[in-house]
Design brief:
The structure holds two protein chains of two kinds. Chain A is an alpha+beta fold. In chain A, about 30% of the residues lie in helices and about 20% in strands. The longest helix of chain A is centred in the first third of the chain and has 29 residues. Chain B is built from 17 helices and 35 strands. Chain B is globular, with a radius of gyration of 26 Å. Classes of the chains: A alpha+beta, B alpha+beta.
């Protein structure tokens, strides 16, 4: 059949390709054994061509996996050669020299042949609950010094050769991970998803022919690129910059980790230069990833469209070798993605002047408040792990308040654990999941609120606490909005009166300790004195803000019955304005 | 199983009427069993006066209200009250520490790259959410008793605010409802006029946010829907109706007005359901127990799968979409909807790619050819241009279509920019719509492990029969059925629906250690509850499912089991059924992995008397009413196509494509290789060429 790429065929193929990746994702999620996949959606599914270009990827998973599988195929093609793959091969890899993420993110891929010709690869990257090493669950934590401490390293290995299982490799895997039934079950699901993709691609190729499909894919890339260019070409050319910093990396105590974004707009092309970010660290917060730049670009150019190789063609990313996000093997990477949401936010903030109507104030900007408590139940002898991800506040927007208690920009469809589900499975009592009054930054449009997740353990166990990371650079306000509150982990053991700030993994706690996983709020957008007093009043009524904040941050004075005292409000606002003016003068002097 | 309550009337002369309120029209279809006669009527839906619309429709039909034995009613009142946010001022009473569960939800952002994402907009503000002191454990044991003082305080506060409805949702009430019951009594006493919903009465399943949302939705729409049902009953009484009134629900069954008043959330998605029930019935009658129901109207197309004569169920859904909608975790018939209907607009995006929908011209302004001021070309306009819709015989000729306008619109907006001729452009529009709809049909079949080749496609809705043969060909579905009354199909389905009540209980346990006696006890409790509200108890059936998964997984599969299996503790059989279902759905399974149970589900189905519809008389051969030039597969050259009037066809008639079969509300398109036979019961059976 000749190449017949008409408008209809193109549109049909455009719809069909993401549908394949999404169907892979649905099946993976529903058959998975670990909550990192079925709740946290810490996976991606994709088809990649032999040049390492992204044909399609699932929608709704973890955003920092965007278009990140190509490098693995480029590397695999170099290792095995175009003739080095056979139908029925299954390759497993997580090696950081190329994959650039923590070892828990295990990639399974299978070559796809049509009529004997290798055309593409079906791939699934998914977070395994365990890969051996020092720790289990979310990853080994920032104090891991190198990949060997982190776990099993798998470097482009064929676990199946032409449909034949490599028994030796399988046993090595099985004997060196803690929950083999879970992870190998997930591997099975990953392979099933790849096979599903092959069936769907067979149907498409049979129907439209090889040449038509390949031509359509090329055209889809081109059109996607043009769409993104069209958005960027509306921005004023220029160089835009912003900076932020994490308090510390968890190992070199007290030393900030700088983040800096320089964005250049030049006639529809965008360059994101992250050279000003930290060099690679001793702490395991390193990665090799373009995710920070790509997530930001995607969010600004076409947030609701499917992703393919064309989505990033008009974007140039500069990250020098040896950067924290272009770290060289064997730099430790077990908490590789920690920095990414803040990098995204910094890039977005840099563009606030260029596209004011599309940029919100800063969000809590960390990978959620991870709730991780684990141990062995003394009665049943069974291991248990409490896992949940708590969202935080998002920044105020150019037209409305920020969302409260929502996961970071890198986490997409990541769901918290239901309280009833947690208590059904694990010996803890969740005492509350509540919004933090006054944690959102004041603004014409207020930042969203962070969360207090309070958990009491009914048996002994260990907590993973995260160090405070944003006390020096809390989620920022924009255009005069105030910053949001930062998050913290708190512990109170039995007999203690007060909670104390905690940090560090594997912290043993006695029975009936209480922990608060506290997430940050979002920054405010615009001058709080311009906020509609009725909205301030409603916030007080809803207890999103205190009366004190209404008075001191917004200059809104309420009577006892919560009606607005107009005169007093006007006076208070004037007073705040003049105080502000004299403070500025003082600063100048 | 038989629920042997000696109730139910003797069938004699029975007149049954179904009235379906849709977005645009209110449809009535009635059947007189003795006279073997159908009655149809249609009137414009009057959103402000829904009850009046129903009464008008009965008047229009010429039926004597006092002669109607049973009236089945489906309405958009529940879903519209929620979507338009016109429900009651609602308070929420929760366990201390969980005030914000309803606002926070699951904290997720399904639109991963959307910086302006928002989740469901709460129906209850935070200041009307009151915490009380009480706490149960996951086992159902009491950790802290219910503090009556804190309930009294909550009641005082909510009464002072003048709430009209109250929802109560305590942690772990799905396993032990005692605290909710006591709280409910106190609230009823303190706020006697408020509508009350207790979470365990709405849904006995774990996951507090989803249960809370479902309960809040129920309370929020309760007063309005309850008032509507009451008003409907009394207005019907006013015109002499004294038969039984039944309300259609999302699970494909009907319920009494009393239950509808208590659980209005159960009628939320009753709209599309009627057509699926009817598809199942038509399939069964024609010997195809496996059918895919395909309904295409003005704004959307809906697909649903019927297997072994039973519609497939979904455990719940999100009103307003998964990303930002309200979870309502009540069973509903599983429907996949895509934004492709007759009114869907064709457009070019900023790089010149041709798109169809999801924007729809709706009924107002409507497609260009409706002459209602529509300026954007739609799927309907494309069909007019292709000659598949007859501009002079639309809705039986009541509405003359503007064929020139349709051509001009397609030409200016699509064909010229793409440098195509208008007919090719029109064909492209229809084909893109077909590929979108095919994806929906795939999603209910292929994506769930069912091969569409084993199914027949039952096409309904004003635009369904127009596109069904093309969709079937795309998916290799060999047979299309165009039923009688395709444009009143939802109402027809309501005539056929049985009474159905669904129950669920969370009972978390390893399958190896399941206490079957406890399971049986729960099953009996649920049957008792069903019996209390069952109108058609004679010959009632029950379906039991266990929600099972491999230990460590989150998502479950619902595995059908029998009472006998529960009685005999047939662990092995249950396990084997789970493995087999898993293999079918996901193409792999793990027989050595332990399995656990999460929920038991029970559906009790009260059989309504079956109606026997008249046969279509046989005639020798079909004669076309006229001929017309129509574009089929080839956009370059129209074919002179025979046009048949459906009313004139007789049983046994055979028609070979290309051909059109026109009737009042729709047109069936037969392509070159398709052949159609008229069944003795009147349906058009199309064997799809090249499928």
């Amino acid at each position: 059949m000749a190449n017949t790429l008409d408008a209809v065929t193109l549109e049909v193929i455009r719809n069909a390709l993401p549908a394949v990746a999404n169907e892979m994702a649905t099946d993976l999620q529903r058959t998975s054994y670990n909550m990192m996949i079925y709740e946290v959606r810490d996976f991606c599914t994709a088809l990649i061509n032999t040049d390492g270009e992204l044909i399609c990827q699932n929608v709704g998973g973890v955003s920092h996996f965007v278009a990140d599988l190509g490098v693995i195929i480029t590397d695999g093609m170099q290792r095995y050669g175009k003739d080095g793959f056979a139908p029925g091969d299954v390759i497993i890899t997580n090696h950081q020299a190329v994959a650039g993420q923590h070892l828990n993110n295990v990639v399974i891929y299978m070559p796809y042949f049509y009529q004997g010709e290798l055309l593409m690869f079906a791939m699934v990257r998914a977070h395994w609950i365990d890969v051996g090493g020092m720790s289990t669950g979310f990853g080994a934590g920032p104090t891991v010094a190198d990949p060997w401490m982190e776990g099993l390293q798998l470097d482009q290995l064929k676990i199946y050769q032409a449909g034949e299982l490599d028994e030796t490799l399988y046993r090595v895997l099985k004997d060196n991970i803690r929950f083999p039934e879970s992870s190998l079950g997930d591997m099975k699901s990953q392979m099933a998803a790849c096979r599903l993709a092959a069936r769907r691609m067979d149907e498409l190729f049979d129907k439209y022919s090889r040449d038509t499909i390949l031509a359509a894919i090329a055209q889809i890339f081109d059109e996607t690129e043009t769409k993104c260019r069209n958005v960027v070409s509306q921005l004023a050319d220029g160089v835009y910059e912003a900076a932020a910093a994490l308090d510390e990396d968890g190992v070199t105590r007290g030393e900030p980790v700088p983040i800096h974004a320089k964005v250049t707009i030049d006639q529809g092309a965008m360059t994101i230069d992250l050279s000003g970010c930290s060099k690679e660290r001793r702490a395991a917060v390193n990665s090799r990833t373009l995710a920070g730049a790509r997530v930001a670009y995607k969010a600004l150019t076409g947030p609701l469209d499917p992703v393919n190789e064309g989505s990033f063609r008009a974007l140039k990313v500069i990250i020098p070798e040896g950067s924290i996000m272009m770290a060289r093997f064997p730099a430790p990477m077990s908490t590789w993605s920690m920095i990414v949401p803040m990098v995204v936010d910094t890039i977005v903030a840099a563009l606030a002047r260029a596209m004011p109507e599309r940029v919100p104030a800063g969000h809590h900007g960390l990978l959620g408040g991870a709730v991780v408590f684990f141990g062995v139940h003394p009665k049943t002898g069974r291991r248990f792990v409490v896992q949940s991800i708590e969202g935080g506040g998002w920044g105020g927007r150019p037209f409305e308040d920020g969302e409260s208690g929502t996961v970071s920009v890198c986490q997409g469809d990541v769901r918290n654990g239901s309280i009833e589900g947690i208590e059904l499975k694990c010996p803890v009592m969740v005492e509350g999941r509540t919004l933090r009054t006054d944690s959102g930054g004041a603004g014409k449009y207020r930042g969203g609120l962070g969360i207090d997740m309070r958990v009491r353990n009914l048996v002994e166990g260990k907590w993973n606490f995260e160090l405070v990371k944003r006390s020096h650079c809390p989620p920022w306000g924009l255009w005069g909005g105030k910053p949001g509150e930062y998050g913290v982990y708190l512990l109170r053991e039995p007999g203690e009166n007060d909670f104390r700030t905690m940090g560090g993994a594997h912290h043993p706690v006695p029975v009936k300790s209480e922990v608060i996983v506290r997430t940050g709020g979002g920054g405010g957008w615009g001058d709080p004195l311009e906020r509609d007093p009725a909205a301030v009043r409603a916030d007080v009524q809803e207890e999103f803000i205190s009366e004190r904040s209404a008075r001191e941050d917004y200059g809104v004075v309420l009577r006892d019955d919560l009606t607005i005292d107009q005169t007093a409000t006007e006076q208070a606002r004037n007073a705040l304005r003049s105080r502000r003016g004299s403070a500025q003068q003082g600063a100048k002097g | 199983m038989i629920l042997d309550t000696p109730k139910g009337r003797e069938p004699g002369r029975v007149i049954v009427v179904a009235i379906d309120i849709g977005g645009t029209f209110t449809d009535l279809i009635g059947f007189d069993d003795e006279a073997q006669r159908f009655v149809e009527a249609k009137s414009l839906t009057t959103p402000a006066e829904l009850v009046q619309g129903v009464i008008d429709c009965i008047r229009k039909s010429g039926l004597d209200a006092s002669a109607i034995d049973e009236l089945i009613h489906g309405s958009t009142i529940a879903i519209n009250t929620l979507i338009e946010r016109k429900g009651a001022k609602t308070g929420l009473v929760v366990t201390r520490g969980t005030r914000d569960v309803y606002i926070i939800g699951r904290g997720n952002r399904p639109e991963a790259y959307n910086l302006f994402f928002h989740r469901h907009r709460p129906l209850v503000p935070r200041h009307l959410t009151r915490e009380v002191d009480e706490r149960l454990l996951a086992s159902g044991e009491t950790h802290a008793p219910l503090d009556r003082v804190s309930i009294a305080e909550a009641c005082r506060a909510l009464a002072a605010e003048g709430v009209e409805a109250v929802a109560v949702c305590f942690l772990h009430s799905y396993v032990n409802p005692a605290h909710e019951r006591v709280a409910g009594e106190m609230i009823r006493a303190a706020l006697p006029s408020a509508y009350l919903s207790l979470s365990h009465e709405i849904l006995r399943e774990y996951r507090e946010f989803e249960r809370m949302s479902t309960t809040v939705v129920n309370a929020y729409i309760g007063p309005k829907v309850g008032g509507y049902v009451k008003g409907l009953k009394s207005s019907l009484g006013g015109i002499g109706f004294d038969g039984a009134l039944s309300i259609m629900r999302s699970n494909g069954g009907v319920m009494t007005p009393e239950i509808a008043t208590e659980r209005p959330a159960a009628m939320m998605e009753s709209g599309p359901v009627g057509g699926i029930i009817a598809s199942a019935q038509v399939g069964r009658a024609l010997g195809s127990a496996n059918v895919i129901s395909f309904d295409m109207g003005g704004t959307t197309a809906k697909a649903s799968l019927v297997r072994d004569g039973e519609p497939t169920m979904a455990p719940g859904y999100y009103v307003g979409g998964y990303a930002s909608g309200h979870p309502v975790m009540l069973p509903m018939i599983d429907v996949v909807e895509v934004g492709a209907g007759g009114g869907s607009i064709a457009w070019l995006d900023d790089v010149g790619a041709l798109k169809v929908g999801p924007q729809s011209a709706g009924a107002d302004p409507g497609p260009i050819c409706y002459r209602g001021g529509g300026a954007e070309p739609t799927i309907t306009d494309a069909n007019v241009l292709l000659g598949r819709l007859d501009p002079d015989n639309f809705l039986g000729g009541q509405m003359k279509l503007d064929a020139d306008g349709a051509r001009r619109g397609v030409k200016e907006k699509i064909a010229a920019p793409l440098r195509m001729d208008p007919v090719t452009a029109a064909q492209a529009i229809v084909e893109i719509a077909i590929s979108k709809m095919s994806l929906a049909v795939r999603e209910v079949s292929v994506a769930k492990g069912y091969d569409p080749r084993d199914f027949a496609l039952v096409a309904s809705g004003g635009a369904g029969p127009l596109h069904a043969a093309a969709i079937a060909r795309e998916l290799h579905i060999p047979k299309v059925v165009v039923p009688l009354f395709p444009s009143h199909f939802s109402a027809l389905g309501m005539l056929l629906a049985d009474e159905r009540h669904d129950f669920i209980r969370t009972l978390y346990s390893d399958l190896a250690g399941v206490d079957f006696a406890a399971l049986l006890k729960i099953q009996r409790e649920m049957v008792e509850e069903a019996r209390a509200s069952l109108r058609h108890a004679a010959g009632a059936e029950q379906q039991i499912h266990l929600d099972l998964r491999y230990v460590g997984q989150e998502f479950t599969l619902s595995v059908p089991v029998s009472v006998e299996q529960l009685e005999t503790g047939d662990r092995r059989g249950v396990r084997a059924a789970f493995d087999a279902l898993y293999e079918h759905r996901y193409a792999h399974h793990s027989p050595d992995e332990p399995v656990e149970m999460v929920n038991i589900r029970l559906a009790v189905i009260g059989k309504r008397p079956k109606l026997s519809f008249p046969r279509t008389p046989a005639t020798a051969r079909a004669t076309p009413a006229r001929q017309r030039e129509v574009y089929f597969t080839d956009a370059r050259k129209p074919l002179l196509s025979p046009v048949y009037q459906r009313e004139a066809l007789g049983a046994g008639n055979r028609i070979a494509g290309p051909a059109l079969i026109q009737e009042h509300g729709t047109t069936t398109v037969l392509f070159e290789q398709d052949t159609c036979t008229v069944a003795p019961s009147g349906e058009l059976i199309i064997m799809v060429g090249g499928a």
